[in-house]
Amino acid sequence: MEKWVLALFLVWLILLVHPLSKIAANTEGDALHNLRSNLLDPNNVLQSWDPTLVNPCTWFHVTCNNENSVIRVDLGNAALSGELVPDLGQLKNLQYLRLNNNSLSGPIPLSLINITALQVLDLSNNRLSGPVPDNGSFSLFTPISFANNIDLCGPVTGKPCPGSPPFAPPPPFVPTATVSSPGKNSPTAAIAGGVAAGAALLFAAPAVGFAYWRRRKPQEFFFDVPAEEDPEVHLGQLKRFSLRELQVATDTFSNKNILGRGGFGKVYKGRLADGTLVAVKRLKEERTPGGELQFQTEVEMISMAVHRNLLRLRGFCMTPTERLLVYPYMANGSVASCLRERPPSEPPLDWSTRKRIAIGSARGLSYLHDHCDPKIIHRDVKAANILLDEEFEAVVGDFGLAKLMDYKDTHVTTAVRGTIGHIAPEYLSTGKSSEKTDVFGYGIMLLELITGQRAFDLARLANDDDVMLLDWVKGLLKEKKLDMLVDPDLQNNYVETEVEQLIQVALLCTQGSPMDRPKMSEVVRMLEGDGLAEKWDEWQKAEVINHDLELAPPGNSDWIVHSTDKLHPFELSGPR
Question: In this model, does residue 303 exceed pLDDT 70?
Answer without folding.
Answer: yes
